[in-house]
Amino acid sequence: MSALADPLPTKTKLLYGFGSIAYGIKDSGFATFLLFYYNQVVGMRADLVSLAIALALFVDAFIDPLIGQWTDRTRTQIGRRHPWLYASAIPICVSWLLLWHPPQASEMMQFFYLLSLAIMVRISLSLNEVPGLALLPELTKDYDDRTSILRYRFLFGWGGGLTMMALAYAVFLAPTDAYPNGLLNPEGYSTYAIIGAFIMAFAVLIAARSTHTRIVKAYRETKHLPAASESLMHIFATFRFRPFMLLMLAGTFAFANQGLVFALTPYLLTHIWLFEQTQLFIYAISIFAGVILTFLLINGISRRFGKSKTAAVLTLVSMVLSTLPYWLRMIGMFPSPGSPVLLPLILVFIIFATAAAVGVMICTMSMMADVTDAYEYETKKKSEGVFSSGMWFMQKAVGGLGILFAGIIISIIQLPDKAPPGSVDIVVVDNLALIFASMTVIIGLIGAWAYTLFPLSQQDHIERIAKLASAQGVVKTR
């Protein structure tokens, strides 16, 4: 009996998901603190910091497919992915430490230091996340179990990032006599980096070790391992696989909406709803509540309705809940800033909108694993790493597109720089709400429609896996 015949044990799911803490800490640090640290603490111009971060994202996105191809072509006694998973721990730890300890130098030298270290951090995480996601179709061939596994990855990824953010605000960057504004304390960032680096390395090693035995056993049971893509042209041919292209189309709009919502949220909460610091902290906690809700519900929903239909419906749910407060505000049917019911009501919308959005991402990643099986069946090539890199490329590039859309919106409405909440002309605030809601609806509708085009069903998957298992001389399906 194959090691992949049964669903993955819950303990292994937990430990495999635990590895995504590293990616969560990185994402939280880049999104929340990196720009502020290099601009306000180190003293670099904000535009140079933003340029370095953007260039690092661009380089990383194009490196990912190569990493995916290299992992597909790896042949060792412990399989194809685990050498990369183990080897990534030290680069992740070292690059994260160095990123938050820049040298005293000229501004241009610091620019190139930031650019180099941001690239190193991103590539180090890609050395883990690309083979880590590619491991999913190798961990189980069970159609529904893949969704169940991924919910642990998202739970720990979001939880790790939000926990480090909360620790930074409450402990590492707390006000002191020397630094009444704790966000300006360089020692706080040093502590944040040191603790984060070791947690990240520990997390990825635990995740790799937890899947080691199962993968090695399955790898050795496979009598014939199909060839992998061997050139850049093969990579491009892999990306042209129709189910993958349709999944990328749907994911592009889903992740673009995510990037748009997250980039504009600080503006929406402070200038439209006039939230204060304590309310913003409560907002951050509510995001994680939405992630937990998804963790509890997504597997049952996906199992009942199928992955593509679930993703399409949840895309619409997220779109409606994200924008409904703004549509109601425009017609005078939503509580005004200062109302005692505003915060709890907004949090309800945020929690359920976040839950739906995260559910879409889980289904999308799970469908990617089904795509790899379909591609292997049709081409006799194993390209899990290449497909995994394509998903990460899409997520990173489109996340940046969402941020770009947000910047364009802010420019169009002519929001003043450093404007205190409550000081902005009401016309500008109204335009912010209208354009945000309109763009979110347009992107969401296209994304929901795109998910309905995904051609791979559960029954198709079961039949393909049975035929693949028969061809390889092992039984790999339920």
Descriptive keywords:
0% strand; Growth Hormone, Chain: A; 17 helices; mainly alpha; 478 residues; 78% helix
Number of strands: 0
Largest sheet: none
Low-confidence segments:
474-478
Shape: globular
What top-tier CATH class of the largest domain fits best?
Answer: Mainly Alpha
Helix content: over 70%
The name CATH uses for the topology of the largest domain is Growth Hormone, Chain: A
Task: Name the CATH homologous superfamily of the largest domain.
Answer: MFS general substrate transporter like domains
N- to C-terminal distance: 11 Å
Following the backbone from N to C, one meets helices and strands in this order, namely HHHHHHHHHHHHHHHHH
Helical stretch count?
17
Provide mean pLDDT, rounded: 84
Provide the CATH architecture of the largest domain. Answer: Up-down Bundle
Secondary structure category: mainly alpha
Question: How would you characterize the overall build of this protein?
Answer:
This protein is mainly α. The chain has two domains: 1-225, Growth Hormone, Chain: A (Up-down Bundle); 241-470, MFS general substrate transporter like domains (Growth Hormone, Chain: A). 78% of the residues lie in helices and 0% in strands. It has 17 helices and no strands. The radius of gyration is 23 Å and the shape is globular. The N and C termini lie close together (11 Å).
